[in-house]
Design a protein that fits this description.
This protein is mainly α. It has one domain. Helix content is 83%, strand content 0%. α2 runs parallel beside α5 and α10 runs parallel beside α13. The radius of gyration is 24 Å and the shape is globular.
C-alpha cells in the first residue's frame, strides 16, 4: 500500500514503516545466516572458514550496490513527496539504466580479479579453492541481487515496506530449502550454498517486478519515460555515486579487518564470522529505523517539510537508544549460546573467541544506532557528502585498529576496530545533521517569508511602488 509520509504523526509513520523492514531485515539476515549454519554444520569448520574469509569481498560489492541503488531511489521518493508523478516514472527508468550498468561492471571486475583479491585477503591455502568457487558463483548472480535491491527500493520509495517483506520471507525460506537440498542431497559443498543464494534472489527480483507492474500504476513506465535526460540522470548519480563510495569505504574497512583476522587461523575466522552474524542479527531494529528515516526524510524533503524531519529524527533517536541498551544486554547474556547454532560442537576456544568480541562491541551499540538514524536522514535529504566523510573516518579508525591495536594486543585489537569506528562516525554524522538541518530550516523560513510578504503585498497598498495608484 502506498503511504504518504508527509502527513500524520511522524513517530507512528516511522514505526509503521520500520516494523515490516525489521522483520524483513531479520529474514535477510537469516537468509545469510542459513548459509553459515548449513555450511558450518553440514560440511565443517574449513568450509565455514572459506565462506567467512571470502565473504567480505562480496560484502564490499553488496554494500556498493546497496548504496548506489539507495541513492537512486532517494530521487524517486523525493519526486513522490513533491507529487511529481511523471518524475517518479522517469526516475524509475533512469535508475534501471544506471543500476544495470553498475551490475555488469562489478560482475566483470569480480570475475577478472577474484584470485588476486583472495590472496590479498590472506585466505589460507587449504580453503582457497572453496573460497574461490563460492565467490565466482555469487559474482555471476550479482545482477539479480542488484535488481532485487533496486525494485524493492522503488516500492519502499512510495511508503510501502510490507510488500518487499513478503517476497523476502518467501525467498529466505526458499534459500534455506535449496541450500539443504543442494548441500545435503547433492553433496555440492559451498557451491550449493552459492547457487541456492543466487536462485533465491532471482525469485525475489521477479516477484517484485511482477507486483510492481500489476499493483502500482504509478510505477508503470511509458515509452517516453525511457528518453534519457542527462541532467536528470546526473541528479540521480550525484546522490548515488557518493553513497556507493561511502558504502565502499565502510566495506573496505571491514575487509581490511577480516584480512588481519584471517592471519589468526581457521578457528579464529570461524569464531569471528559467527560473532559478526550474531551482531548483524541483533542490530536489525536500529537498521530498520535508519532505513525508515531515509524514506521519511526523502518524502518530507521533497515536500519542503523540514520541521517534520526534525521531529522524526528526535523521536527515532530516542527509540534507537532504547533498542541499543536492550539489545546489548540481550547479546551479552545469550550470545555465547547462539555460537553453537553456527558450528556443530564448537570448541571452548571458538566460543571464548566469539564471546570476547561480543562483550566488547555491545558496549558501543548506542553509537551504532545513532549512525543509522543520522546517516540515513542525511541521505534521504540528498546530502551524501557528510555520510561519505563519516565513512572515511570509519575506514581510518578500523584500519588503525587492525594495524596497530592488533599488532600490539592481538585479537583483542580487532575486537575494538568496530567500536572505535562507530564512535568516530557517529560524531561526524550527528554534527553534520545539526548543521544541515539548521541551514535547511533557515532556507525554508526565508522562502515562506517571501511568499507571505508577496501575498500580503497583493492586499495592501503600502506594498505598492512609490507613486503607484491604489486599486
Amino acid at each position: 500500500m502506498i503511504q504518504d509520509m508527509t502527513a500524520g504523526s511522524p513517530t507512528k509513520l516511522i514505526l509503521k514503516f520500520a516494523v515490516p523492514l525489521l522483520i524483513g531485515n531479520i529474514f535477510q539476515q537469516l537468509f545469510q545466516i542459513s548459509d553459515i549454519v548449513i555450511v558450518g554444520r553440514l560440511i565443517g569448520i574449513n568450509a565455514l572458514a572459506a565462506v567467512g574469509s571470502s565473504a567480505p569481498i562480496f560484502f564490499v560489492v553488496i554494500l556498493i550496490t546497496l548504496g548506489f541503488t539507495g541513492g537512486l531511489t532517494v530521487i524517486t521518493a523525493q519526486r513522490f513527496g513533491a507529487k511529481d508523478f511523471d518524475g517518479v516514472r522517469r526516475s524509475v527508468t533512469h535508475s534501471l539504466i544506471a543500476a544495470f550498468g553498475l551490475s555488469i561492471l562489478m560482475t566483470a571486475l569480480l570475475m577478472s580479479f577474484m584470485q588476486p583479491l583472495l590472496r590479498l585477503m590472506n585466505v589460507p591455502g587449504n580453503i582457497m579453492k572453496d573460497a574461490y568457487n563460492f565467490m565466482m558463483i555469487l559474482s555471476g548472480g550479482l545482477v539479480m541481487i542488484v535488481a532485487y535491491n533496486l525494485l524493492s527500493g522503488f516500492i519502499r520509495a512510495l511508503g510501502d515496506s510490507k510488500t518487499p517483506l513478503y517476497f523476502l520471507i518467501f525467498s529466505s525460506l526458499l534459500n534455506i530449502l535449496l541450500n539443504l537440498w543442494l548441500i545435503y542431497s547433492f553433496k555440492l559443498g559451498v557451491i550449493g550454498s552459492a547457487v541456492g543464494t543466487c536462485i533465491s534472489m532471482t525469485v525475489s527480483a521477479a516477484l517484485c517486478l511482477v507486483y510492481m507492474i500489476k499493483k502500482y500504476p504509478l510505477l508503470r513506465v511509458r515509452r517516453q519515460d525511457w528518453r534519457l535526460d542527462y541532467r536528470f540522470m546526473m541528479q540521480h548519480l550525484n546522490i548515488a555515486v557518493p553513497m556507493a563510495l561511502q558504502f565502499s569505504v565502510l566495506s573496505l574497512g571491514l575487509m581490511f579487518v577480516q584480512s588481519v583476522c584471517n592471519s589468526f587461523g581457521a578457528n579464529t575466522i570461524a569464531a569471528f564470522t559467527s560473532a559478526l552474524r550474531i551482531e548483524q542479527l541483533a542490530t536489525q531494529p536500529m537498521v530498520a529505523l535508519g532505513i525508515a528515516m531515509a524514506t521519511y526524510a526523502a518524502q518530507n524533503s521533497g515536500a519542503g517539510m523540514i520541521n517534520r524531519i526534525r521531529a522524526g529524527v528526535r523521536n527515532s533517536s530516542l527509540i534507537s537508544l532504547s533498542f541499543s541498551v536492550f539489545i546489548a544486554l540481550l547479546v551479552r547474556f545469550v550470545g555465547e549460546e547462539i555460537v553453537g547454532i553456527f558450528i556443530d560442537n564448537p570448541s571452548p576456544e571458538i566460543i571464548r573467541t566469539a564471546r570476547q568480541y561480543l562483550n566488547i562491541s555491545t558496549l558501543f551499540y548506542l553509537f551504532l544506532g545513532q549512525i543509522f538514524i543520522f546517516r540515513n536522514t542525511l541521505q534521504g535529504m540528498g546530502d551524501s557528502f557528510i555520510p561519505l566523510v563519516a565513512g572515511i573516518m570509519e575506514l581510518v579508525m578500523r584500519s588503525f585498529a587492525a594495524v596497530f591495536l592488533a599488532a600490539r594486543f592481538g585479537y583483542v585489537g580487532i575486537c575494538y576496530a568496530g567500536p572505535i569506528a562507530w564512535v568516530a562516525a557517529s560524531t561526524v554524522v550527528s554534527v553534520g545533521y545539526a548543521i544541515t538541518i539548521y541551514r535547511l530550516s533557515r532556507k525554508t523560513s526565508k522562502l515562506f517569508s517571501k511568499r507571505r510578504n508577496a501575498r500580503s503585498c497583493r492586499k495592501k497598498t503600502d506594498c505598492l511602488p512609490e507613486g503607484a495608484p491604489a486599486e
